[in-house]
Automatic annotation (TrEMBL):
Database matches in InterPro entries: Nitroreductase, Nitroreductase-like
Pfam families per UniProt: Nitroreductase
Gene3D superfamilies given in the database record: NADH Oxidase
This protein's UniProt keywords: Oxidoreductase
UniProt lineage: Bacteria, Pseudomonadati, Bacteroidota, Bacteroidia, Bacteroidales
GO molecular function per UniProt: oxidoreductase activity
Family the UniProt entry places it in: Belongs to the nitroreductase family.
Domain Nitroreductase span(s) in chain numbering: 7-157
Protein name: Nitroreductase
Native source organism of the sequence: Lentimicrobium saccharophilum
Length: 181
């Protein structure tokens, strides 16, 4: 498929088949994320793959509450990938202070999208989750104190018949200008 077709195919999937994801496919997705660019090549990430129960279910449950149920679908996903933000290189950290930019957040976003695009090419579905109980994830996954969880990604085969939704986006005129705002 072309790159544009891949972009159109990639969507947030919220219904998964129970079948497990092959280790080789998980590895390809991780390799795509690992190879993504980062500020000063800091590679400020660690990917924790959770694919065994009961831990996977507990990680999924950390993405919703009794009040916020929107992520309840995560318990269906056979794989959860937790991205931990690692410390950037010293000169990147210095530049972050000077420029008041959080480059590691941008970096993990790029890595996550590489992961999700690779998954889509392999016929897998993903959903990036930003709402989660960080303290619970840190405890469940033995994440060292001082480390920050940046994102959680669900991974699995979309449920049979899961619809490819039309992307509703702002027009090019609304989001693009040349040479000035």
């Amino acid at each position: 498929m072309t790159f544009k077709e891949l972009i159109i195919q990639r969507q947030s999937v919220r219904r998964y088949d129970a079948r497990p994801v092959e280790t080789e496919k998980i590895s390809l997705c991780l390799e795509a994320a690992r190879l993504s660019p980062s500020a000063s090549n800091s590679q400020p990430w660690r990917f924790i793959v959770v694919d065994q129960d009961p831990l996977r279910t507990e990680v999924a449950k950390a993405t919703f509450t009794d009040i916020q149920l929107i992520n309840k679908f995560t318990v269906q996903a056979p794989v959860m990938v937790v991205i931990v933000i690692e410390k950037a290189r010293w000169f990147t950290r210095l530049a972050m202070q000077v420029k008041k930019k959080e480059w590691p957040l941008i970096d993990i976003g790029i890595a996550a999208e590489h992961f999700c695009l690779q998954a889509a090419e392999l016929g897998l579905g993903t959903c990036m989750i930003g709402w989660f109980d960080e303290k619970k994830l840190q405890k469940l996954l033995h994440i060292p104190a001082g480390k920050q969880v940046g994102l959680v990604i669900t991974l699995g085969y979309p449920q049979e018949g899961y619809p490819l939704r039309k992307k509703i986006r702002k027009s090019m005129e609304e989001v693009v200008t040349f040479n000035r705002y």
